[in-house]
Amino acid sequence: MRGVVLLSALLCATCHIALSASNDTARNGTVADGLLDNGNFEQAPNATNMKGTVVVGRYAIPGWVNEGFVEYIKYGQKQGDMLLVVPEGAYAVRLGNEASIKQKIKVIKGMYYSITFSAARTCAQEEQLNVTVAPDSGVLPIQTVYSSTGWDNYAWAFKAESGVVELIIHNPGVAEDPACGPLIDAVAIKALYPPRLTNNNIMKNAGFEEGAYIFPNTPWGVLIAPNIEDDHCPLPGWIVESLKAVKYIDSAHYFVPQGRRAVELVAGKESAIAQVARTIVGKTYRLSFSVGDANNSCVGSLVVEAFAGKGTLKVPYESKGTGGFKRAVLEFVAVSNRTRIMFLSTYYTMRSDDFSSLCGPVVDDVKLLSVRKP
């Protein structure tokens, strides 16, 4: 992994994101899970469509339509005293003031999809991105940098209202320098299949196995942004009910208590997930779940707070940062036919080997069942 200084505080690193057959279209003609057409921007504009780093012409970047001040950035390019790097391959794009990139995608009408992409700030100012697939639109704040790589992966979900949709990634910022905009790379899509309830668990997607696309060789997980509606969340069944994002992690790069996926609560009490479960008033329920660490040098006293109706539980976990977990149980009596189940982290924590990367406890394998009293 190569690292350089980004501004005065960020270290940037590169990580190869493997290309696979998922970049091909599916058998039914719709897009398959994986990178979009030229999703990593490795197919470059013609030299005649470039003026320095600025892209000239709306259709200059293969697979994309660009609007406004868009730059085509090569790995190692300098911006003042700062070196720019990209997370995959050699190229990325930078969106200036009010600039955007667009691509039409063949999908299945009525299905839910998640978009995953890499983004990095290039200036010290507050930055955000608008992501749109009409009629859905969302604003993803990127001023908080969660890792020292300088790059974070973000996920955003939508429901397809037609067989062909247009994805738009837009920088709404207004800065003195029009080049002061975010870098974008590695744009991928994944179909979401909202899980159903079973007789063994009242919770949906309780093991977090269904969720956003995670790039095969990206070691920093995917951020699920806050305040996204439940039915459009990249984590089906759940709501990111917090001011900051939660991190969606996989067993290929992290320790996961059960299965292949889990959630890391990376921003203290500002990082929370919730789900509303159907319950019967007066009945007793048992909520059980796993709390652990992701084997990412998140060392120290971690605490997960669980809420279920009027019931609360604090679960301490002394982490050595090398992976591990324990089970916890919260029993409560339902006072409503809808009970909100929520998890948050008590403390902000930084990785012991990297004091600029946020980390936190892992939550996984959530189970909710009614209890038969003798």
From TrEMBL:
NAD listed as a keyword: no
Domain of life of the source: Eukaryota
Cross-referenced Pfam families: DUF642
Protein name: Uncharacterized protein LOC111300280
Major localisation: secreted
This protein's record includes keyword Ribosomal protein: no
Occurrences of domain DUF642 (ranges): 34-190, 228-368
Subcellular location per the Swiss-Prot or TrEMBL entry: Secreted, Cell wall
Species lineage: Eukaryota, Viridiplantae, Streptophyta, Embryophyta, Tracheophyta
Record's keyword terms, sorted: Cell wall, Glycoprotein, Secreted, Signal
Record's signal peptide: 1-20
Cross-referenced SUPFAM superfamilies: Galactose-binding domain-like
GO cellular component: plant-type cell wall
